[in-house]
Amino acid sequence: MRATGEFISPSSSSAEVEDAAPAPDAVRCRVAANPLERELHLRIRMEVFVREQGLFAETDRDAHDDEPLTLHVLGLCGAEVAGTVRLYPLGESGLWKGDRLAVLPRFRRHGVGAPLVDFAVRVAGELGGREMVAQIQLANVEFFERLGWRRLGAVADYCGRPHQQMVIRLSAAADRSPAPG
Question: Which of 74, 93, 102, 174 pairs with 109 at a CA distance of 20 to 30 A?
């Protein structure tokens, strides 16, 4: 899957983006810029969460996908779309949710997941967020802890499988890694 048009975060301008072609395995993240890219995002989620993992029977789409403040992020490995994450503000002031982190199987050893998580955390912080929460599959809890997330409460059922709610302070996350560009 290929995507065109580059911007790093909602606040970046085209002058901040390098024109050079990416290295073959370089991982870059950006918010889906048009309906085609949003569809690529949704197709990756369908492949991972419906077909591969069976977390959802027919689709993982929900009302958050159509909310105007929801950001659908693409992770690119070189020029190919390799993964996704979705983020959106919750009703509470400054609280954001990150979810639907999905990396296609053939890209799972290319280091796509961490840049997607870091991008979501950084963008939510840029947009005024103070904390981000996520429901994490148990096999991925240590991965998120290495990225600065902490466990919140006990393991609970989410989409029919055990998940750990986790949280990260956005200001602390923004301090630990520089913004791309």
Answer: 174
